[in-house]
Amino acid sequence: MTEKEKAIARLMIQIPIMYVFTYLELSNRLSQIVTSWEMANLPWYMKSEKGNIKLKMKDVSGISSIGDDKILNTGSPHYIKNVTGINEFDVFNEGKKIRDSELYKQDGINVNFVEQNEEGISLRTYERGVENETLSCGTGATAAAIVSTSSEGNHHVNVKVLGGKLEVEYE
Question: Which residues pair with 133 in a beta bridge?
Fold first, then answer.
């Protein structure tokens, strides 16, 4: 492993990609080590465009179903369930039931509850590891956006979460 590769590996451990607010620090530190071309060819990368932070995510290899619910992996495994009345929905107890079920008990799964709205979708997530509802989940928003659209091509989905509003674009 070259010194450059070792430095990238140390940064990936020191500054988790999950924390988007570290984008500028990560970008500044990486730019001292790698060129823009090298950064764009990492397995993941972030860039700022018109005030938005864009993340390259893992390609989804497939979507499976259990009844009307969907399961996919966008970097973390996600269980997507459509609901009505999402604002009053009991995310903690319903999410815990699915996460602690025999099927997912050992490895865990993030459980996402989705409701269609005029602007896109509303999303609430019970997150494995946290074992509670979280204000936002980027991989969950991505999974929910993918499941909420079914046609081929480029997609743009507005996602409302408890922590604010997200936009997911994918091909």
Answer: 126
